[in-house]
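Hi W., the nicotinamide-adenine-dinucleotide complex you wanted:
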Amino acid sequence: MQQKGADMDLKGKTAIITGSNSGIGLGVAEELAKAGATVVINSFTDRPEDHALAARIAADHGVEARYIAADMSKAEDCRALIAKAGGCDILVNNAGIQHVAPVEDFPIDKWNQIIAINLSSAFHTIAAALPGMRAKGWGRIIDIASAHGLTASPYKSAYVASKHAVVGLTKTVALETAGQGITCNAICPGYVLTPLVEAQIPDQMKVHNMDRDTVIREVMLLRQPSRQFATTEQIGGTVLYLCSPYADQVTGTTISVDGGWTAL
Ligand code: NAD
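Structure:
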């Protein structure tokens, strides 16, 4: 059942978005729900507000939405998430964390945690979701990598390594699924205005004694030539494109949404 271009209709498709109770994951879930998909929201917490968030998305968009708690740092949780969802047509591997330290001081537990959440979780969810996608002859796997999947910055060794590796995983899965109605791609955002990034602006304004626009342009977006944040809606829209028939032959690639960062 193929939807038609601009009238994109994802009714009947189940989308699982890891790490989606905030930020980019939540933005992606909203766009998929707007397009009619059943959405599974996830994080490692299991609070009433997590389930309320899913209920709010269901009510806003007239779709089914569920919250399933699963810790993406644990192999068994990653695989259980896919099993508990009872189906997965669209898998968005989005859960991710960051830690900044020089490589020789980088805490070993932080390295292991970042590799587990940013990289290994995608291996586990993909492995668990693929048999169902193959049985249906349709599937979309979208890994939220980063501009740091294509280029490096100092002090972010684990993050940069994990994101480069996710791009490698994406290409490999694309080759293993080519011609089977399944595509696997990575989206590489530059700086995206998430609540986490928004919260850093007041501190940066104080530290640099600059107004909001100047701190965004001259400090935070120094490496992003557009000097504008990408938005969670734009990442969600890129996911929708990859779910559309226009992208049936787009597989094993990276799509940068980074205001020109990686063109430099
Ligand atoms: P965020 O902190 O708002 O969201 C991260 C999400 O992952 C949250 O929902 C969090 O609860 C979840 N999460 C963290 N640890 C988890 C775990 N162990 N198990 C399950 N869920 C877990 O951050 P964000 O900016 O929205 O980032 C989302 C993704 O986008 C990450 O992979 C990040 O690397 C990537 N990214 C973000 C930016 C940016 O500028 N914000 C840029 C490039 C790439």
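The chain is about 45% helix and 15% strand.

W.
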